[in-house]
Amino acid sequence: MKKVCLLGCGRLGRIIAEALLAGAVEGAELAAVFTRSADRADRLRGELSCPVSADIHALLAERPDYVVEAAAAAAVKEYAIPIMEAGADLIVLSTSALGDPEFYGRALAAAESFDRRIHLAHGVTGGLDAVEAAAMMGALSASITKRKFPKGSPQSDPALDMLADGFRGTAEDARLRYPNQLNVAVSLGLAAGSMRGTDVFVESGSCVDFTITCEGAFGKGVFHTELGAYGPDFAAWSALAALRRLTDRIVF
Length: 252
What we know:
This protein is of the alpha/beta class.
């Protein structure tokens, strides 16, 4: 049985915690949860049947095999290296942290030094495995278009309202301007092998969806994901799926 700890317990973290406690990933058990807020830690202790702490050292004292991050890019940058030094692999939802070349270099060096791995969850879209394979074949062009409800509309998500309608830029631009809102764009840039060569577009529309387009020696691929009412929860389940790939005997 692999011991799993959770870094962050907001909306996505809570989904991950409850799923693990319910046995959603065979061969994995939730050992502990970390949240920065001591008050929130006190509340969660009465709601989750596992240790909850605002002390990262208490989390790592559980000696986890894996730590799942469901916090923010800043938390990845602060805790990734201590987590690997403590002997755990890391599953990351806030992939924009790895889009920072300086941090990427430090994280890679730490992973090599401590013989650990950082696994990037796919988040709310698919097709990244195909993009990575296409990039291995040679030169590749890649782009992602994110549509969202217009800012201030009844259906809009406050978390996405800070995204400028009509944003145009590269995955690197997206990382710098929206470090916690466009993780999927950074993931695409990393999969395609070029943050500056990956185009990112944000548009307003009648739904929330993502369209990834890539073209290379293999041909052309278009991967479309339209989110429903529980679409944002998809990111949490992508982290759980990443964990299952690490614990199952037969994996995709």
